[in-house]
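Re: your question from the hallway

Yes, I did run it. Sequences:
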Amino acid sequence: MMTCNQLFIDRVKREWRYQISVWRTAVDWTVALYVVLPIVTVFLYFYISLWQTIPAWMGILPADAVIPVLLLFFVSGNLRLFIQEGDLLVFLSRPEWFSAIRKRGLLYSMGVHFLGTLLFVILLMPFLLYHFELGPIHAAAFIIFASMSKFLFLFVGEWLEIRRYSLWKKGPVYAVMFAVFFAVIHLSLNAFVWMTMFTLAGGMALPGMFQWRSHLHAFSYDQQLERRHRTKYSSLILGVAGMKTSSAETIRKSPLIFPKSGRLFRNRNPYNGLAEAFIKSQVRNGKKLFYLAQILGITLYAAIVVPPGLTGLMLVAGLGMWIYMIHTYWRSFLQSSTIRLFPFLPSDRKRAWNRAIMIATLPAAVTLALVWAGFIL
Amino acid sequence: MEQLRVHIKQAGYDTSSPVIRDIRFAIRPGEIVGLIGANGAGKSTLIKSILNVIDYLEGDVSFQGKQETLAYVPEQPIYLEDLTLWEHLELAASVYQLEQEQFRQNADRLLLLFDLQDKKHRLPSSFSKGMQQKMMLVIAFLIRPALYVVDEPFIGLDPKATRILIQRLEQERDHGAGILLSTHVLDTAEKLCDRLLVIDRGRLIADGTLEELRLQSGLAEGSLTDIYHRLLERSI
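Structure:
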């Protein structure tokens, strides 16, 4: 008979097989050979050179420039519970397996995130050593501190998900967390004693959070969140590769934007209809908006911290990334079963894209242009 | 004149293992043709072949007019998660360039008919399966195409909506539309369809009116259910 441990290990194996299959689908051998391999090689060469000689640009960047990067890293990712839809049938006779699987899932997720944090901090280490002159113990302790911070962000993220907070409600919570952790990271990088105190405080809070999540009886949420988290990155990877994936379930009844189905274009024709459907689908999708906001945020951040001569280049690159993302969404939209039901002509698609990209790029273009104007003035 | 002519030598998801073979039939204007068969018999593959969304098709599927005059109602409702019900209708109206006032009147009438009037600005993802199915039917009836391909429409519909659907299909037939109706509800198919196609293991084993199928099966007074089972037994 299968034990709880065997069941969990089996799920982890299946998870890895699934994620590898997604990568294989998106990155075939030609892409791996001609795109991924050269990028990795150049990156490794660049990274090793950072340990040998400190580049001039590193001195220009302010020391605290690393903190927003760390905060973005902390807020990314999620905890996995490995609870599945069919478990309700099996676990009815063994209710103790619910929390047992959750605990293993949480421990596994924390292990994976610890390794991820270790790798990320190692990547940032040349910068940290240069600006903060960390000693070996301080640097090692920073890995523990960063992991602890990441776990706290993940548990808070889980709490927000379970409370079904919309993006608009999550925003203020994260804004407060970002402000607090900005100060915490700044102090920790500058004084070992602060880092020790914050790590101990986090270490005391963590067991309580772990117990709360592993014993929270929310089967319906657990399996919904699990399904969403499982496909979160695979959907993005496949989307970028131009492949359609089904999106997570929606629980909203009415949209917040255009709640009365108001029209964007007065003239009704196939290309206006297609462009309008696309734009509304995008502006009502919190996840997609969040990705776009991230692109904008990273671009603005990069534009601020790079030397003045490179600001323009950063803004143009950011706008290019924005347009690329919109185009990825567009391809995915055209491949949806609903759109394929309708007999759009290639000329309709082309004209619709021209309209849609113009409108969808406007917010980013205006924001970036204002920032650029600010720099010039 | 035929609304749809199907002459498929073989079709499927790859060339090495075709799912359907040697299928020939036609649908004339003003005719409801029932497509019946067991699960996995090849009904969905046949519908996909007609819609030209199949990976492998050897043969010919031709329409009297343009293919744009075809409406497809799938078994599993499909929709855009972030568009309201009304916006789906607007999208259909844009594609088929329906006149504004006429579109509004027809859309409101259909929504009222299918009890969806108060849901018009809701997202279909919050609907039950039956309501989503009704939405697909409203879109199809809004377009009023020359040919309908309707896949298992009765599953999930409440009795009132089922009755309305049957009446609407009959009205569309009377107005000259051709209708291909795939269903497992044989009692309804018997009453509604002018002609029946029976498909088994990828082959068309019968094509005719109920009377012709009775003759073919040797069950002079048999119901469609009896005839269907007899035809399947014979084809083994």
